[in-house]
């Protein structure tokens, strides 16, 4: 009997150890499941935040690129008009479109295009139809436009003292 009681006690101790181990095992599996779910939620949150940041950065980049493009277009338009004004002065001084083209290395079509731009700017300024954001004509002093040149036919042409924009527009 004693042996049976000892055997039952040992069996009961083993079963209790198994139950404790199983309980600990199941508890750890629950912790693991919770940790995996938490990690998945954290990953999802991080991905959502990253996607928002990427969208914001792309939006800011697109806005910046558009501002740069617009500034470049505006600068090119100013340079083209300055080149056209310089070509108008050359025309007023007796140069032909062909000679201006030959001297500048440009095609006659390009020189005519620049002259048309300058003519359209002259008409817009004379009519007061200047577009917002466009550079205004220089102010007149003593009947002469500031920074302008009187042409042979009596018209006024605004020219830049700086040859850079003219050369830049003619080479574009």
TrEMBL record:
Entry keyword set:
Coiled coil
- Spell out the coiled coil positions from the record: 40-74
Q: Where is the composition biased (Basic and acidic residues)?
A: 115-124
Outline the segment boundaries, as ranges, of region: Disordered: 115-172
What phylogenetic lineage does the species belong to? Bacteria, Bacillati, Actinomycetota, Actinomycetes, Mycobacteriales
Supply the source organism for this entry: Mycolicibacterium agri (Mycobacterium agri)
Protein name listed in UniProt: Uncharacterized protein
């Amino acid at each position: 009997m004693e042996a049976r009681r000892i055997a039952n006690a040992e069996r009961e101790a083993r079963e209790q150890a198994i139950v404790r181990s199983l309980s600990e095992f199941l508890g750890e599996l629950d912790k693991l499941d919770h940790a995996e779910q938490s990690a998945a939620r954290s990953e999802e949150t991080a991905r959502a935040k990253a996607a928002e940041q990427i969208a914001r950065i792309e939006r800011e980049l697109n806005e910046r690129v558009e501002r740069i493009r617009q500034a470049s277009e505006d600068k090119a338009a100013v340079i083209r008009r300055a080149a056209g004004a310089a070509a108008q002065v050359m025309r007023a001084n007796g140069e032909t479109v062909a000679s201006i083209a030959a001297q500048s290395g440009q095609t006659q079509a390009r020189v005519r295009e620049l002259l048309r731009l300058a003519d359209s700017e002259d008409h817009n300024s004379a009519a007061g139809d200047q577009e917002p954001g466009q550079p205004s004509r220089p102010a007149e002093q003593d009947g002469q436009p500031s920074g302008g040149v009187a042409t042979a036919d009596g018209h006024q042409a605004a020219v830049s003292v700086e040859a850079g924009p003219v050369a830049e527009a003619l080479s574009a």
